[in-house]
Amino acid sequence: MNRLAAESDGIVFGFTSRNARTYKSMNYHRHKIKKNKTLWSPTVAVTEEAGFFNASDDSVWSCHAGNHWWVSENAVRVIGQLGERVAFFPRCDNHPGPWHGYPVSVTNDEHYEVPEEIISEWESGKNPHIDDLVAGRMRKFKI
Amino acid sequence: MRRISLRLHGAYVEAYLYFDFAWLISKDGLIRAFDIEEYCSKRLNGSGNAASKLFANNQRITPENLDPEVNRLLKPQSSIDVSENDIERFSYTFKSLFDFKSILDFRFYYGRAFYSTEKSIQQFTAQGRDDLEFNGIGRTVKQPLHERLVSDSACRQFQCRYGAVSAACGRDGGLIGFGANSDESNWEIEFGKFAAQSYGIELNPDAISNLHTPTEVEFYRAQSSRATADISNKLKSEEGRPDKLELTTVGERSYEEQTKLIANLVRQVGQAPKRIFLFKSTLWIEFENGTMRRVVATEADKVSDNPTITQSFAAPGRILATSLTSIGVIAEGDDQVFLWKNKRWHVLVDDQVHSVRGYMNSRRYRNVVTAVRRDQVELISLFN
What we know:
Largest sheet of chain B: 5 strands, mixed
Shape of chain B: globular
Oligomer: heterodimer
Structural class of chain B: mainly beta
Shape of chain A: globular
Helix content of chain B: 10-25%
Distance between the termini of chain B: 4 Å
Order of helices and strands of chain A: EEEHEEEHH
Helix content of chain A: 10-25%
Number of helices of chain B: 6
Number of strands of chain B: 32
């Protein structure tokens, strides 16, 4: 996605290939500004963060609640400063956005169980995005 | 620390050692009971007897005086590979009645097995070699598994102690069933919900500790009485010293003062807790800064009025799950499995695992750890 604007609270990117949505990388998920906000790993560039959202939007990795989810192939990539490997993009009803997102782990916050429909989607098909070990770890609340 | 591995090749998703077998579950729903001792005696020639002591029955080993053949096998990085064909040859095979995508946990207790899928909890009857027979053509079973669904909740962690089985079911709550030490052949567990949500449970005679969230521990008052069940020698080999007490009831949340004292101890550390792991007498706390501490929370099996916290030590990385062995605490990390021994983390398995567990309460498998990897189940026999 292209960088559209730098605002006081983050950088806006646009537009996702499938739904023409915008995405804002929030400063408080990049630097310790607010309490209780998870932080992206420094190894994740701001453009990559926006790319994760684009990939999630493109693949329709959205749960029944309308939130979007992302994980790297077989969850090999660490994306959060506490070791998180899953990204969460809460539902945004404004079109085109901006959406925003952050790294999550159910091991630290029980509100972020990866929904079964998302795990099943990632695990299914001829070329599954995750294998049964990683899918099992998600169902066991390990990642 | 010395070790040797028995590597059971094949794609399994869970494993548990009980009675004479390594119970192996594969994704196609087959449950295999692999006869470890028979394999060792028939396939390993001169080493069979020693391998059998290491993997099939640790009761036959005197740790302080290991016999020469056992000593010879316990070489650094040594392993014995069991082919898929040999697993078929030395296994009794059952078909699960229930479809699943994942097995979340698997536990045997007093001759019964409990396993959870992503949808429900099932129970079946554990069988020993005496219940099964080899008739020269194939392996047959005298009795079926009596597999049945016992809860519509999905359990991420079972705990079995004091004649009770608990199930931590996340937002579905904490469940517990009593009387699991019953010797009635048709006994079936009846789970009752005692906690609104649960991410881990530990059982003590007067209290049940529960993780309401991954970082918030709460205690429920429990009652126990003297255990009356008379257990067979066959079960004694599996369950170690039988519990003298059995849990009978669980009440409301309680131990408010002790809960506050523990919370204060954690607050005084000045670091945000990331995750708590429950053990019988301690809580292991992983902090966001990558350190850990232990809180000694019980005294003589009772919730302590004077909990203490240890010095910090480095975590081996993010910890996904823990288990206990007679050698030390096992921690499953994202990419490796570690053993905490002599105040150091040792890499036990350099791989991702479906599950890893020790058999602290088993006499027969006291020194063995099972690690379920993508392409094999590794039985690791550990000695000092």
